[in-house]
């Protein structure tokens, strides 16, 4: 006769991402997929209150105009690397 075993299934609700909720210290470049635009993703996130992920991995809910903030150096470096491997990317992400 085979022994009956019991399996305990649990959902892992931990996350490595911490969403920024305070005052931002720099502007980030939004990570987008094929066919998506950063402007559309930011607009949707502002309206729906959903978090965005930056190229550097930072997660936040946009709430203010980032033009008055300095650009995140890590995002900038990652974008420059993408640009060097992909023809057709603009000099700056917002163009």
Structural class: alpha+beta
Rg over alpha carbons: 19 Å
Poorly predicted runs are 12-16
Biggest beta-sheet profile: 3 strands, mixed
Number of domains: 1
* Helix-strand string: EHEEH
Question: Can you give the helix content as a percent range?
Answer: 25-40%
What's the arrangement of strands in the largest beta sheet? 1-3-2
Task: Give the count of helical stretches.
Answer: 2
Average pLDDT taken over every residue: 79
What form results from the Cα inertia axes?
extended
Proportion of residues in extended strands:
5-15%
Count the strands?
Answer: 3
Kindly, what is the distance between the CA atoms of the first and last residues, rounded to a whole number of angstroms? 70 Å
Spell out the blueprint of helices and strands:
Elements: E1 19-20, H1 38-48, E2 52-53, E3 59-60, H2 73-85
Parallel strand pairs: 1-3
Antiparallel strand pairs: 2-3
Tell me about this structure:
- It is a single chain.
- By secondary structure, the chain is of the alpha+beta class.
- It has one domain (19-85).
- 25% of the residues lie in helices and 6% in strands.
- The protein has two helices and three strands; from the N terminus they run βαββα.
- The chain has helices at 38-48, 73-85; strands at residues 19-20, 52-53, 59-60.
- It has a three-stranded mixed sheet with strand order 1-3-2.
- The longest helix has 13 residues, at 73-85.
- The chain is extended.
- It starts with 18 loop residues before the first strand and ends in a 10-residue tail after the last helix.
- The relative contact order is 0.19.
